[in-house]
Amino acid sequence: MPTNSAETLLLFGATGDLAQRMLLPSLYGLDADGLLPPALRIVATARSEMDTDGFRAAANEALKRFVDADYLKEDAVARFLGRLTYVVVDASDISQYGKLSEAVGSTAKGLAIFLSTAPSLFKATIAGLQQAGLAGDNVRLALEKPLGTDLPSSRDINDAVAAVFPEERTFRIDHYLGKETVQNLLALRFGNALFEPLWNASHIDHVQITVAETVGLEGRVGFYDGTGALRDMVQNHMLQLLALVAMEPPNEFSATEVRDEKVKVLRALRRIDGASVEANSVTGQYQAGAIDGAGVPAYADELGQPSGTETFVALKAHVDNWRWKGVPFYLRTGKRLPQRQSMIVIQFKPVPHSIFASKGAALKANKLIINLQPQENIRLLTMAKQPGLDRQGIRLREVPLDLGMANAFADTRRRIAYERLLLDLIEGDPTLFVRRDEVEAQWEWIDAIRTGWAAKSVSPKSYAAGTWGPNAAIALTERDGVSWHE
Questions:
Q1: Does residue 203 carry a catalytic annotation?
Q2: What is the pTM of this model?
Q3: Which entry of 175, 203, 206, 237 is annotated as an active-site residue?
Protein backbone atom coordinates (compact mmCIF):
# COMPACT_ATOMS: atom_id res chain seq x y z
CA MET A 1 0.00 0.00 0.00
CA PRO A 2 1.22 3.58 -0.65
CA THR A 3 2.63 5.24 2.45
CA ASN A 4 0.04 8.05 2.35
CA SER A 5 -3.02 5.79 2.25
CA ALA A 6 -5.83 6.93 4.52
CA GLU A 7 -6.96 4.52 7.22
CA THR A 8 -10.45 5.99 7.47
CA LEU A 9 -12.96 6.83 4.72
CA LEU A 10 -15.81 9.15 5.74
CA LEU A 11 -18.72 8.74 3.34
CA PHE A 12 -21.41 11.45 3.30
CA GLY A 13 -24.76 10.71 1.64
CA ALA A 14 -24.29 7.02 2.42
CA THR A 15 -27.97 6.12 2.05
CA GLY A 16 -28.39 7.93 -1.27
CA ASP A 17 -28.77 6.47 -4.74
CA LEU A 18 -25.14 7.05 -5.76
CA ALA A 19 -23.84 5.28 -2.67
CA GLN A 20 -26.16 2.31 -3.15
CA ARG A 21 -25.55 1.86 -6.90
CA MET A 22 -21.90 2.84 -7.22
CA LEU A 23 -19.94 3.66 -4.08
CA LEU A 24 -20.67 0.66 -1.86
CA PRO A 25 -20.35 -1.85 -4.76
CA SER A 26 -17.07 -0.16 -5.77
CA LEU A 27 -15.66 -0.32 -2.27
CA TYR A 28 -16.71 -3.95 -1.98
CA GLY A 29 -14.97 -4.73 -5.29
CA LEU A 30 -11.75 -3.13 -4.05
CA ASP A 31 -11.98 -4.99 -0.76
CA ALA A 32 -12.72 -8.35 -2.42
CA ASP A 33 -9.58 -7.92 -4.56
CA GLY A 34 -7.43 -7.05 -1.56
CA LEU A 35 -6.82 -3.46 -2.69
CA LEU A 36 -8.09 -1.58 0.35
CA PRO A 37 -5.68 -0.91 3.23
CA PRO A 38 -6.17 -3.80 5.70
CA ALA A 39 -7.05 -1.48 8.55
CA LEU A 40 -9.33 0.86 6.54
CA ARG A 41 -12.52 1.82 8.36
CA ILE A 42 -15.52 3.23 6.48
CA VAL A 43 -17.61 5.65 8.49
CA ALA A 44 -20.90 6.25 6.68
CA THR A 45 -23.22 9.12 7.48
CA ALA A 46 -26.60 10.47 6.37
CA ARG A 47 -29.82 11.80 7.92
CA SER A 48 -31.66 8.46 7.76
CA GLU A 49 -32.40 7.10 11.21
CA MET A 50 -30.71 3.72 11.65
CA ASP A 51 -27.88 2.13 13.59
CA THR A 52 -24.75 0.45 12.28
CA ASP A 53 -26.41 -2.96 12.08
CA GLY A 54 -29.27 -1.45 10.09
CA PHE A 55 -26.87 0.24 7.68
CA ARG A 56 -24.87 -2.95 7.23
CA ALA A 57 -28.10 -4.77 6.36
CA ALA A 58 -28.98 -2.02 3.84
CA ALA A 59 -25.47 -2.16 2.37
CA ASN A 60 -25.76 -5.94 2.03
CA GLU A 61 -29.00 -5.51 0.08
CA ALA A 62 -27.33 -2.92 -2.18
CA LEU A 63 -24.53 -5.38 -2.94
CA LYS A 64 -27.05 -8.08 -3.84
CA ARG A 65 -28.81 -5.67 -6.22
CA PHE A 66 -25.81 -4.08 -7.92
CA VAL A 67 -22.98 -6.63 -7.81
CA ASP A 68 -22.89 -9.76 -9.99
CA ALA A 69 -23.99 -12.71 -7.92
CA ASP A 70 -20.96 -14.79 -8.90
CA TYR A 71 -18.66 -12.10 -7.52
CA LEU A 72 -20.35 -11.97 -4.11
CA LYS A 73 -18.37 -14.23 -1.80
CA GLU A 74 -19.73 -14.78 1.68
CA ASP A 75 -16.42 -14.22 3.47
CA ALA A 76 -15.59 -11.14 1.35
CA VAL A 77 -19.03 -9.61 2.00
CA ALA A 78 -18.72 -10.25 5.74
CA ARG A 79 -15.26 -8.66 5.82
CA PHE A 80 -16.47 -5.61 3.91
CA LEU A 81 -19.59 -5.11 6.03
CA GLY A 82 -17.39 -5.35 9.10
CA ARG A 83 -15.55 -2.22 7.98
CA LEU A 84 -18.75 -0.15 8.07
CA THR A 85 -19.88 2.13 10.88
CA TYR A 86 -22.93 4.36 10.56
CA VAL A 87 -23.56 7.72 12.23
CA VAL A 88 -26.79 9.72 11.90
CA VAL A 89 -25.92 13.35 11.11
CA ASP A 90 -27.88 16.21 9.58
CA ALA A 91 -25.14 17.80 7.46
CA SER A 92 -26.80 21.22 7.72
CA ASP A 93 -26.50 21.21 11.55
CA ILE A 94 -22.93 22.06 12.53
CA SER A 95 -23.55 21.05 16.14
CA GLN A 96 -23.93 17.39 15.11
CA TYR A 97 -20.43 16.98 13.69
CA GLY A 98 -19.02 16.09 17.08
CA LYS A 99 -20.60 12.64 16.62
CA LEU A 100 -18.58 12.19 13.44
CA SER A 101 -15.39 13.22 15.20
CA GLU A 102 -16.01 10.59 17.87
CA ALA A 103 -16.67 7.90 15.27
CA VAL A 104 -13.62 8.80 13.16
CA GLY A 105 -11.22 9.31 16.04
CA SER A 106 -7.71 10.48 15.29
CA THR A 107 -6.91 11.65 11.77
CA ALA A 108 -3.17 11.19 12.28
CA LYS A 109 -3.11 8.09 10.06
CA GLY A 110 -5.09 9.77 7.29
CA LEU A 111 -8.74 10.52 6.61
CA ALA A 112 -10.37 10.61 3.16
CA ILE A 113 -13.80 12.27 2.93
CA PHE A 114 -16.23 11.64 0.07
CA LEU A 115 -18.86 14.35 -0.06
CA SER A 116 -21.92 13.14 -1.99
CA THR A 117 -24.49 15.71 -0.89
CA ALA A 118 -26.43 18.57 -2.43
CA PRO A 119 -24.15 21.53 -3.28
CA SER A 120 -26.28 23.68 -0.96
CA LEU A 121 -24.80 21.67 1.93
CA PHE A 122 -21.14 22.05 0.93
CA LYS A 123 -20.44 25.17 2.98
CA ALA A 124 -22.16 23.89 6.11
CA THR A 125 -20.43 20.53 5.77
CA ILE A 126 -16.99 22.06 5.41
CA ALA A 127 -17.60 24.36 8.37
CA GLY A 128 -18.79 21.40 10.44
CA LEU A 129 -15.75 19.32 9.50
CA GLN A 130 -13.42 22.15 10.45
CA GLN A 131 -15.16 22.78 13.77
CA ALA A 132 -15.02 19.05 14.61
CA GLY A 133 -11.29 18.82 13.89
CA LEU A 134 -11.78 16.76 10.73
CA ALA A 135 -9.94 19.07 8.33
CA GLY A 136 -6.30 18.74 9.34
CA ASP A 137 -3.17 18.15 7.28
CA ASN A 138 -3.85 14.42 6.93
CA VAL A 139 -7.39 14.91 5.61
CA ARG A 140 -8.41 15.11 1.95
CA LEU A 141 -11.84 15.93 0.57
CA ALA A 142 -13.57 14.59 -2.56
CA LEU A 143 -16.48 16.55 -4.03
CA GLU A 144 -19.18 15.22 -6.35
CA LYS A 145 -20.60 17.46 -9.06
CA PRO A 146 -22.31 19.80 -9.59
CA LEU A 147 -19.83 22.40 -8.39
CA GLY A 148 -22.05 25.42 -8.93
CA THR A 149 -24.45 26.49 -11.65
CA ASP A 150 -22.20 29.12 -13.24
CA LEU A 151 -18.75 30.65 -12.76
CA PRO A 152 -19.65 32.90 -9.77
CA SER A 153 -21.38 30.11 -7.84
CA SER A 154 -18.53 27.72 -8.66
CA ARG A 155 -16.00 30.21 -7.35
CA ASP A 156 -18.11 30.65 -4.24
CA ILE A 157 -18.01 26.90 -3.55
CA ASN A 158 -14.32 26.64 -4.39
CA ASP A 159 -13.48 29.57 -2.13
CA ALA A 160 -15.32 27.90 0.76
CA VAL A 161 -13.45 24.66 0.12
CA ALA A 162 -10.06 26.39 -0.28
CA ALA A 163 -10.46 28.21 3.02
CA VAL A 164 -10.24 24.82 4.78
CA PHE A 165 -8.81 22.33 2.26
CA PRO A 166 -5.89 23.48 0.08
CA GLU A 167 -5.91 22.49 -3.60
CA GLU A 168 -3.54 19.55 -3.11
CA ARG A 169 -6.04 18.00 -0.67
CA THR A 170 -9.15 18.72 -2.77
CA PHE A 171 -10.34 15.99 -5.16
CA ARG A 172 -13.10 17.10 -7.57
CA ILE A 173 -14.78 14.09 -9.15
CA ASP A 174 -15.81 13.57 -12.75
CA HIS A 175 -16.60 9.87 -12.89
CA TYR A 176 -15.99 9.74 -16.66
CA LEU A 177 -12.28 10.09 -15.89
CA GLY A 178 -12.45 6.79 -14.00
CA LYS A 179 -13.57 4.86 -17.08
CA GLU A 180 -10.97 2.48 -18.47
CA THR A 181 -11.49 3.60 -22.07
CA VAL A 182 -11.06 7.26 -21.16
CA GLN A 183 -7.72 6.46 -19.56
CA ASN A 184 -6.93 4.23 -22.54
CA LEU A 185 -7.27 7.30 -24.75
CA LEU A 186 -4.02 8.56 -23.21
CA ALA A 187 -2.36 5.17 -23.74
CA LEU A 188 -3.60 5.10 -27.33
CA ARG A 189 -2.23 8.55 -28.10
CA PHE A 190 0.99 8.62 -26.13
CA GLY A 191 1.93 4.95 -25.97
CA ASN A 192 1.87 4.23 -29.72
CA ALA A 193 3.98 5.68 -32.53
CA LEU A 194 1.09 5.15 -34.95
CA PHE A 195 -1.37 7.83 -33.81
CA GLU A 196 0.36 10.84 -32.27
CA PRO A 197 2.13 11.99 -35.48
CA LEU A 198 -1.30 12.09 -37.16
CA TRP A 199 -3.14 13.68 -34.22
CA ASN A 200 -3.38 17.23 -35.61
CA ALA A 201 -5.08 19.50 -38.10
CA SER A 202 -2.95 18.21 -40.98
CA HIS A 203 -4.50 14.75 -40.74
CA ILE A 204 -7.77 15.04 -38.78
CA ASP A 205 -10.86 16.47 -40.46
CA HIS A 206 -13.08 16.72 -37.39
CA VAL A 207 -13.88 15.20 -33.99
CA GLN A 208 -17.29 14.12 -32.69
CA ILE A 209 -18.17 13.50 -29.04
CA THR A 210 -21.60 12.04 -28.27
CA VAL A 211 -23.10 11.26 -24.87
CA ALA A 212 -26.62 9.94 -25.44
CA GLU A 213 -29.14 8.76 -22.85
CA THR A 214 -32.42 6.93 -23.35
CA VAL A 215 -33.77 7.92 -19.92
CA GLY A 216 -35.87 10.95 -19.04
CA LEU A 217 -35.98 12.74 -15.71
CA GLU A 218 -35.55 9.56 -13.61
CA GLY A 219 -36.52 11.19 -10.33
CA ARG A 220 -34.20 14.17 -10.87
CA VAL A 221 -37.04 16.62 -11.49
CA GLY A 222 -35.93 19.33 -9.08
CA PHE A 223 -32.29 19.19 -10.08
CA TYR A 224 -32.54 18.73 -13.84
CA ASP A 225 -35.09 21.42 -14.67
CA GLY A 226 -32.88 24.00 -13.02
CA THR A 227 -29.81 22.69 -14.80
CA GLY A 228 -30.38 21.44 -18.37
CA ALA A 229 -28.17 19.40 -20.68
CA LEU A 230 -25.49 22.07 -21.19
CA ARG A 231 -24.66 22.36 -17.50
CA ASP A 232 -25.42 18.75 -16.60
CA MET A 233 -23.27 17.03 -19.24
CA VAL A 234 -21.26 19.44 -21.41
CA GLN A 235 -19.73 21.54 -18.63
CA ASN A 236 -18.05 18.56 -17.00
CA HIS A 237 -18.01 15.18 -18.77
CA MET A 238 -17.88 16.33 -22.38
CA LEU A 239 -15.38 19.14 -21.91
CA GLN A 240 -13.12 16.76 -20.00
CA LEU A 241 -13.29 14.31 -22.89
CA LEU A 242 -12.55 17.11 -25.36
CA ALA A 243 -9.55 18.18 -23.28
CA LEU A 244 -8.12 14.64 -23.24
CA VAL A 245 -8.55 14.34 -27.01
CA ALA A 246 -6.98 17.72 -27.73
CA MET A 247 -4.27 18.07 -25.07
CA GLU A 248 -0.56 18.23 -25.87
CA PRO A 249 1.68 15.38 -24.68
CA PRO A 250 2.49 15.93 -21.00
CA ASN A 251 6.12 15.47 -19.92
CA GLU A 252 5.04 12.56 -17.73
CA PHE A 253 1.87 10.88 -16.49
CA SER A 254 1.47 12.85 -13.28
CA ALA A 255 -1.33 14.91 -11.78
CA THR A 256 0.31 18.28 -12.38
CA GLU A 257 1.50 17.58 -15.91
CA VAL A 258 -1.76 16.05 -17.18
CA ARG A 259 -3.96 18.73 -15.65
CA ASP A 260 -1.70 21.53 -16.88
CA GLU A 261 -2.18 20.32 -20.46
CA LYS A 262 -5.95 19.91 -20.08
CA VAL A 263 -6.44 23.44 -18.80
CA LYS A 264 -4.48 24.83 -21.77
CA VAL A 265 -7.04 23.25 -24.08
CA LEU A 266 -9.99 24.58 -22.10
CA ARG A 267 -8.54 28.09 -22.22
CA ALA A 268 -8.00 27.76 -25.98
CA LEU A 269 -11.66 26.98 -26.68
CA ARG A 270 -13.08 29.62 -28.99
CA ARG A 271 -15.80 31.58 -27.23
CA ILE A 272 -19.36 30.92 -28.43
CA ASP A 273 -21.21 34.14 -27.62
CA GLY A 274 -24.16 36.17 -28.81
CA ALA A 275 -22.55 36.78 -32.19
CA SER A 276 -21.93 33.09 -32.92
CA VAL A 277 -24.29 31.11 -30.70
CA GLU A 278 -27.01 30.63 -33.31
CA ALA A 279 -24.56 29.28 -35.89
CA ASN A 280 -22.72 27.00 -33.47
CA SER A 281 -25.35 25.61 -31.09
CA VAL A 282 -28.67 23.79 -31.17
CA THR A 283 -30.95 23.15 -28.20
CA GLY A 284 -33.87 20.79 -27.98
CA GLN A 285 -36.51 19.39 -25.66
CA TYR A 286 -38.06 15.96 -26.13
CA GLN A 287 -41.72 15.47 -26.87
CA ALA A 288 -43.74 12.26 -26.58
CA GLY A 289 -42.32 9.33 -28.51
CA ALA A 290 -41.08 5.78 -28.13
CA ILE A 291 -37.95 4.20 -26.64
CA ASP A 292 -37.34 0.54 -27.50
CA GLY A 293 -40.92 0.31 -28.73
CA ALA A 294 -42.47 1.64 -25.52
CA GLY A 295 -44.27 4.97 -25.45
CA VAL A 296 -42.80 7.70 -23.25
CA PRO A 297 -44.25 11.13 -22.35
CA ALA A 298 -42.94 14.56 -23.26
CA TYR A 299 -40.51 16.33 -20.93
CA ALA A 300 -43.13 18.89 -19.92
CA ASP A 301 -45.56 16.08 -19.07
CA GLU A 302 -42.96 14.32 -16.93
CA LEU A 303 -42.19 17.63 -15.27
CA GLY A 304 -45.84 18.50 -14.82
CA GLN A 305 -45.55 21.98 -16.33
CA PRO A 306 -44.16 23.81 -19.37
CA SER A 307 -40.43 24.49 -19.26
CA GLY A 308 -37.74 26.21 -21.30
CA THR A 309 -35.02 23.81 -20.11
CA GLU A 310 -33.01 22.07 -22.82
CA THR A 311 -32.81 18.26 -22.72
CA PHE A 312 -30.59 18.20 -25.83
CA VAL A 313 -27.69 20.31 -26.97
CA ALA A 314 -25.36 20.13 -29.96
CA LEU A 315 -22.35 22.41 -30.35
CA LYS A 316 -19.67 23.15 -32.89
CA ALA A 317 -16.51 24.08 -30.99
CA HIS A 318 -12.99 25.04 -32.00
CA VAL A 319 -9.68 24.83 -30.13
CA ASP A 320 -7.69 27.83 -31.27
CA ASN A 321 -4.12 26.60 -31.11
CA TRP A 322 -1.46 25.37 -33.51
CA ARG A 323 -2.42 21.67 -33.37
CA TRP A 324 -6.16 22.09 -33.96
CA LYS A 325 -6.44 25.16 -36.17
CA GLY A 326 -9.55 24.77 -38.36
CA VAL A 327 -10.66 21.40 -36.92
CA PRO A 328 -14.27 21.46 -35.66
CA PHE A 329 -15.24 19.53 -32.53
CA TYR A 330 -18.91 18.54 -32.68
CA LEU A 331 -20.47 17.83 -29.28
CA ARG A 332 -23.90 16.25 -28.85
CA THR A 333 -25.77 15.11 -25.75
CA GLY A 334 -29.40 14.56 -24.85
CA LYS A 335 -32.08 12.59 -23.06
CA ARG A 336 -34.63 10.24 -24.64
CA LEU A 337 -32.34 9.53 -27.59
CA PRO A 338 -32.55 6.19 -29.46
CA GLN A 339 -29.76 4.44 -27.59
CA ARG A 340 -27.49 4.82 -24.60
CA GLN A 341 -24.12 5.66 -26.04
CA SER A 342 -20.95 7.55 -25.19
CA MET A 343 -18.35 7.76 -27.91
CA ILE A 344 -15.51 9.79 -29.37
CA VAL A 345 -15.06 9.72 -33.15
CA ILE A 346 -11.83 10.89 -34.75
CA GLN A 347 -12.45 11.43 -38.47
CA PHE A 348 -9.20 11.46 -40.42
CA LYS A 349 -8.78 13.26 -43.72
CA PRO A 350 -8.85 11.24 -46.95
CA VAL A 351 -5.69 10.15 -48.68
CA PRO A 352 -4.35 13.01 -50.85
CA HIS A 353 -4.63 10.96 -54.05
CA SER A 354 -6.44 7.69 -54.75
CA ILE A 355 -4.54 5.33 -57.03
CA PHE A 356 -7.75 3.25 -57.28
CA ALA A 357 -10.00 5.95 -58.74
CA SER A 358 -9.36 4.86 -62.33
CA LYS A 359 -10.42 1.34 -61.37
CA GLY A 360 -13.77 2.56 -60.08
CA ALA A 361 -12.99 1.90 -56.42
CA ALA A 362 -14.26 4.41 -53.87
CA LEU A 363 -12.23 5.21 -50.78
CA LYS A 364 -13.54 6.23 -47.37
CA ALA A 365 -11.35 8.19 -45.00
CA ASN A 366 -10.15 6.34 -41.90
CA LYS A 367 -12.16 6.77 -38.73
CA LEU A 368 -11.22 5.97 -35.13
CA ILE A 369 -14.20 5.21 -32.87
CA ILE A 370 -13.70 5.10 -29.11
CA ASN A 371 -16.76 3.70 -27.33
CA LEU A 372 -17.01 4.52 -23.63
CA GLN A 373 -20.39 2.97 -22.88
CA PRO A 374 -22.33 0.76 -22.78
CA GLN A 375 -19.50 -1.38 -24.22
CA GLU A 376 -15.92 -0.21 -23.98
CA ASN A 377 -13.97 -0.73 -27.17
CA ILE A 378 -11.78 1.00 -29.72
CA ARG A 379 -12.35 0.51 -33.47
CA LEU A 380 -10.31 1.79 -36.39
CA LEU A 381 -12.13 1.75 -39.74
CA THR A 382 -9.68 1.06 -42.57
CA MET A 383 -9.92 0.24 -46.29
CA ALA A 384 -9.16 -3.27 -47.55
CA LYS A 385 -9.46 -5.04 -50.88
CA GLN A 386 -12.44 -7.32 -51.21
CA PRO A 387 -11.36 -10.84 -52.28
CA GLY A 388 -11.87 -11.65 -55.96
CA LEU A 389 -10.30 -11.63 -59.42
CA ASP A 390 -11.29 -8.01 -60.05
CA ARG A 391 -12.54 -8.56 -63.61
CA GLN A 392 -14.98 -5.66 -63.21
CA GLY A 393 -12.55 -3.51 -61.28
CA ILE A 394 -11.02 -3.47 -57.83
CA ARG A 395 -13.53 -3.53 -55.03
CA LEU A 396 -12.59 -1.99 -51.71
CA ARG A 397 -14.49 -2.32 -48.47
CA GLU A 398 -14.31 -0.55 -45.13
CA VAL A 399 -13.09 -3.06 -42.53
CA PRO A 400 -12.92 -2.52 -38.76
CA LEU A 401 -9.83 -3.27 -36.70
CA ASP A 402 -11.27 -3.88 -33.24
CA LEU A 403 -9.75 -3.70 -29.81
CA GLY A 404 -12.60 -5.09 -27.74
CA MET A 405 -11.64 -4.42 -24.15
CA ALA A 406 -13.64 -7.38 -22.89
CA ASN A 407 -11.85 -9.71 -25.32
CA ALA A 408 -8.35 -8.26 -25.14
CA PHE A 409 -8.41 -8.34 -21.35
CA ALA A 410 -10.74 -11.26 -20.74
CA ASP A 411 -8.73 -12.29 -17.70
CA THR A 412 -9.24 -8.90 -16.01
CA ARG A 413 -12.44 -7.94 -14.24
CA ARG A 414 -14.14 -4.87 -15.67
CA ARG A 415 -14.35 -2.31 -12.90
CA ILE A 416 -16.85 0.41 -12.05
CA ALA A 417 -15.29 3.83 -12.75
CA TYR A 418 -15.71 4.77 -9.10
CA GLU A 419 -13.43 1.92 -8.02
CA ARG A 420 -10.43 3.69 -9.55
CA LEU A 421 -11.47 7.08 -8.20
CA LEU A 422 -12.18 5.85 -4.67
CA LEU A 423 -8.88 4.00 -4.53
CA ASP A 424 -7.02 7.07 -5.84
CA LEU A 425 -8.74 9.17 -3.16
CA ILE A 426 -7.79 6.74 -0.41
CA GLU A 427 -4.22 6.58 -1.68
CA GLY A 428 -3.98 10.32 -2.37
CA ASP A 429 -3.40 10.31 -6.15
CA PRO A 430 -5.13 13.36 -7.76
CA THR A 431 -4.25 12.63 -11.43
CA LEU A 432 -7.80 11.68 -12.50
CA PHE A 433 -9.52 14.42 -10.51
CA VAL A 434 -10.33 17.91 -11.75
CA ARG A 435 -8.37 20.97 -10.65
CA ARG A 436 -10.02 24.27 -9.78
CA ASP A 437 -8.67 26.15 -12.79
CA GLU A 438 -10.11 23.43 -15.07
CA VAL A 439 -13.56 23.77 -13.52
CA GLU A 440 -13.52 27.55 -13.81
CA ALA A 441 -12.29 27.50 -17.42
CA GLN A 442 -15.17 25.12 -18.24
CA TRP A 443 -17.73 27.36 -16.56
CA GLU A 444 -16.41 30.46 -18.29
CA TRP A 445 -16.98 28.83 -21.70
CA ILE A 446 -20.42 27.48 -20.74
CA ASP A 447 -21.58 30.79 -19.26
CA ALA A 448 -20.80 32.59 -22.54
CA ILE A 449 -23.07 30.16 -24.41
CA ARG A 450 -25.91 30.62 -21.94
CA THR A 451 -25.52 34.39 -22.10
CA GLY A 452 -25.62 34.14 -25.90
CA TRP A 453 -28.80 32.05 -25.76
CA ALA A 454 -30.44 34.67 -23.56
CA ALA A 455 -29.32 37.54 -25.81
CA LYS A 456 -30.73 35.83 -28.92
CA SER A 457 -33.83 34.44 -27.16
CA VAL A 458 -32.83 30.90 -28.14
CA SER A 459 -35.42 28.36 -27.02
CA PRO A 460 -35.30 24.56 -27.29
CA LYS A 461 -36.58 23.03 -30.53
CA SER A 462 -38.87 20.02 -30.25
CA TYR A 463 -37.76 16.49 -31.03
CA ALA A 464 -39.63 13.25 -30.63
CA ALA A 465 -38.37 10.90 -27.94
CA GLY A 466 -36.48 8.07 -29.61
CA THR A 467 -34.89 10.28 -32.28
CA TRP A 468 -31.45 11.91 -32.46
CA GLY A 469 -32.64 15.38 -31.53
CA PRO A 470 -33.95 18.32 -33.56
CA ASN A 471 -33.35 18.48 -37.31
CA ALA A 472 -31.25 21.56 -36.70
CA ALA A 473 -28.63 19.32 -35.03
CA ILE A 474 -28.25 17.43 -38.31
CA ALA A 475 -27.95 20.72 -40.18
CA LEU A 476 -25.25 21.89 -37.75
CA THR A 477 -22.84 19.29 -39.14
CA GLU A 478 -24.18 18.88 -42.67
CA ARG A 479 -23.45 22.53 -43.43
CA ASP A 480 -19.83 21.40 -43.22
CA GLY A 481 -20.42 18.22 -45.24
CA VAL A 482 -20.29 16.09 -42.08
CA SER A 483 -22.79 13.52 -40.76
CA TRP A 484 -23.13 12.42 -37.15
CA HIS A 485 -21.77 8.92 -36.59
CA GLU A 486 -24.62 6.66 -35.44
A1: no
A2: 0.90
A3: 237
